[in-house]
Amino acid sequence: MKVSEREPGDQPDQTRCERLVAYMLDAAFVLDQQGKIVHGNKLAEVLVASPLSALIGQRLSDLLHPADRDVALLLLRKSEGFVRNIRIQRKDGSLVWTDLMATRADPYLVVVVRDVTEQKRLEETIHRMACYDDLTGLPNQRFLIEQINALAESRPHVLLVIGLDRFKEINAAFGRRCGDLLLEQIASRLKEVVEKSALLARLEGDRFAALFPEGTEAEDAVQVAKAILSSLETSFSVEGLPVWVRASIGISLFPEQAGGALLRCADLALHAAKKSAVGYVLYSPACDPQTPLQLELMGDLARAIETDQLFLVYQPKIDLKTGQVVGVEALVRWQHPQYELIPPSEFLLPAEQTGLIHPLTLWVLKRALGDCQAWHQAGVKINIAVNLSPRNLQDPKFPDDVAHLLSEHGVAASFLELEIPERGLREYRLLEPLARLSKIGVKIVIDDFGYSVFGTLRGFPVDQIKIDKVFINDMAVDYDSAVVARSTIELGHTFHLSVVAEGVEDRETMDRLTDLGCDAAQGYHLSEPLSAEALAQWLRERA
Ligand code: C2E
Ligand code: CA
Ligand code: CA
């Protein structure tokens, strides 16, 4: 007979309670009105790992983990009911997870204690499987979102999303298994950089994320983003072969971007970062192709082009054999009337998406050719390099526009260099417009070179390649980068191409490049990008 089923007036004595718990299939205690143990069955002794004699007279609540005591006491005082996930603390310190069920047997209380430790472990395993990534052992996207949702709304926090560039190609070239090995290595390198300062998670595909604790400022996150990018510049090893991985990083901030949108904004910024030269982008409305703010900024850009808010800076390209300035590269800047100076990484992607890249490039060409004409008239016969977006080549009128602008400014076509990012060459339909441009007599330069094999260039009318600054920056300290630089120079010369190194930041690198036979160099060591006036001054001083 169950204690609760007793007849009215049928007072249970202690012996009857003892008999009752003796047959139970779970651990059970009999407590007096003060909550002290007066009896327990064999299973209770096993559960607590203590002989009954040592338990008699103790409060059951004293056997519980301090954090669970309050909840359990509520139940014990109510004298009826059920409470889950209560930890019993054994003398040796070990914990047993239990569910407690209390039944009144006046004046006693019978408490059944079910050991759910195994079940709890299983639940934890399932939770881990649901919240952690199998491959890297890192928390996954679901876990990250839980953490973002739990953040206090009152304090600033920062999220970085790190995307690997062209990881699909690596997977295709080396196979899935090697791709996985590489991801594991990348995960541990990221751990080294961010584990102390942020929660690192693996998102779907080739993305990772770092969530910074509340109170982190944007500037700290930018420093970490830079550290991550530079940590990935050293090659990885897959089946004994060196593999280079490049990443881009999107950064979003709270409260600037509301809580739930943090991940979406970081993803949009990542998308923009993939097209930028710096490798990381802080989310701004310009990253978002859908917001009215972005449309507003693009409206501003349209006006900016018409009203000369854009301006150009020029960075000299120097012949490494003669030391002569052979040309300058035009780099666009935007002085927005309400914001600080906006770098091209912030507005080029939305300009590409909205088609504004067409008037923008024509504006840059016009201004650059105008300045070049002035230098030529002053007797400084240097080349002018202008950056193109692959989208410019999709405009069938573009080659004619270039020819027209050249003749309008009286600059011979051979002085104009058009720089096209290497990623643009993956589209074979760009071959025809490039061939038309090449026919005019302008030089075709492949920018940001070094990630793919020379086979990509087959059939394209290329005059010059520019080794990406990632490889040049640390070729003095990193063997693998030095190998990329050397083999690019050698192979470039085999194909009769002139080879330029960009991002030359010190004397040592410049000397090394000269020894390797590199044709020309550009970088902060030689000169930062300069305004047209500052450039004229710089040229005079050099002469
Ligand atoms: P890019 O063509 O690779 O240009 C080189 C970038 O590296 C420039 O950044 C330049 O300021 C920077 N740089 C120069 N020397 C060094 C150095 O020694 N070390 C390092 N770490 N960096 C150096 P910027 O001006 O912010 O331009 C970023 C990118 O924006 C350019 O990369 C180019 O892809 C694009 N861009 C700039 N102007 C235009 C333009 O008029 N039209 C188009 N379509 N793209 C442009
Ligand atoms: Ca360039
Ligand atoms: Ca470049």
Structural domain count: 3
Largest sheet: 8 strands, mixed, barrel
Q: Helix coverage percent of residues?
A: 40-55%
Strand order, main sheet: write it out.
Answer: 13-14-16-17-18-19-20-21
Mean pLDDT equals 87
Q: Report the strand count.
A: 21
Question: Descriptors for this entry?
Answer:
543 residues; Beta-Lactamase; Alpha-Beta Plaits; 3 domains; eight-stranded mixed β-barrel; five-stranded antiparallel β-sheet; 21 strands; elongated; binds ligand C2E; binds calcium ion
Architecture overview:
42% of the residues lie in helices and 23% in strands. The protein is built from 20 helices and 21 strands. An 8-stranded mixed beta barrel has the order 13-14-16-17-18-19-20-21, surrounded by 5 helices. Helix 10 links the parallel strand 11 and strand 12. Helix 8 (176-194) packs across helix 9 (218-231), helix 13 runs parallel beside helix 15 (398-409) and helix 15 runs parallel beside helix 16 (431-440). The protein is elongated and about 115 Å long. Mean pLDDT is 87; it is low at 1-10. The structure holds ligand C2E and calcium ion (CA) (2 copies). One calcium ion (CA) binds at residues 447-448, 466, 468, 502.
SSE layout and pairing:
Layout: H1 14-22, E1 27-31, E2 37-40, H2 42-48, H3 52-55, H4 66-78, E3 81-89, E4 95-105, E5 108-115, H5 117-131, H6 141-150, E6 157-165, H7 167-174, H8 176-194, E7 199-202, E8 207-211, H9 218-231, E9 236-238, E10 241-243, E11 246-254, H10 262-275, E12 280-282, H11 292-306, E13 310-319, E14 325-335, E15 341-342, H12 344-354, H13 357-377, E16 383-387, H14 390-393, H15 398-409, E17 416-421, H16 431-440, E18 443-449, E19 464-467, H17 469-473, H18 479-494, E20 498-501, H19 507-515, E21 520-521, H20 532-542
Parallel strand pairs: 11-12, 14-16, 16-17, 17-18, 18-19, 19-20, 20-21
Antiparallel strand pairs: 1-2, 1-5, 3-4, 4-5, 6-8, 6-11, 7-8, 9-10, 13-14, 13-21, 14-15
Bound molecules: ligand C2E and calcium ion (CA) (2 copies).
